[in-house]
Design brief:
Number of strands: 16
Mean pLDDT: 93
Strand order of the largest sheet: 3-1-10-11-16
Strand content: 35-45%
Largest sheet: 5 strands, antiparallel
Order of helices and strands: EHEEEEEEEEEEEEEEHHE
Number of helices: 3
Low-confidence stretches: none
Structural class: mainly beta
Radius of gyration: 17 Å
Helix content: 10-25%
Length: about 200
Amino acid sequence: MCNEAYRRTQIDKILRGWENIRLPLRFPEGVPNFAPLDSIRITDRIEIVRAASDGDGAEMVTRRWSWPAPGGKPVYNFRSDGREFANTAVSGRCLIPVEGFYEFTDPPAPGEAAPKKKPPKSKWAFTVRGLEWFCIAGLWRTDPAVGEAWTMLTCAPGPDMAPYHHRQIVVLTPGDYAGWLSGEVPAPQLCRPLPAGTLSVEQVR
C-alpha cells in the first residue's frame, strides 16, 4: 500500500487552487515554506489541511505521517471501507496535498515474463490527469506517544490502480474537498475509487 508520495508544488500554487474551494484557508502556525519534496515517507512531517479548530473554515498545519499501533508498527494507511469519520477536538478528517504518490510491484512489471534474477521492485508514480496537485483523504488524531499525526485512507482499487495493487489510497478531486473537511458528506460517499482514466501512471524504476 502507499508508503511514499511526493510534492514539488509550491505554496502559491496551492493557494491559487484553493481559491475555488468554499472554505477559507488559514495558517495558525504560519504559512509553511514548501520545499520541493521528491520523497515523502512514513514519519516525515508535512502539511495537511483540516477543519479549523473553531469551526470556521480550514487550517493548514504540519504534522507527522503515521502514529504507532499497539504493536509498534506505524499506522500510515487506514481502511475506509464502510466507516464514518467525524471531526472532534482530538481527531478528524484531513486532506494531504501532494503532486503524486508511488506504488511498488514485484518484478516483473504487469504483463512481462519473470527474469531469472529478481531485481528491485518496480516503482510507479501516479498523478491525477489535468491537476498540478491534488489531495489524498486522511485522518488525523492525537496520539499519546507522538502527538498529532495523520494517516492516509484506503479503499478498493479503481481500474487505473487494479493492475498494480489490490488496494488504493482515497484520492479526492477539488469538488470534494469542502464536503470532506466539513463532514457534511458521508465518508462512504467520497471514499471510493475514481473512474477509469482519472489517474496517470509512469514507471520510475
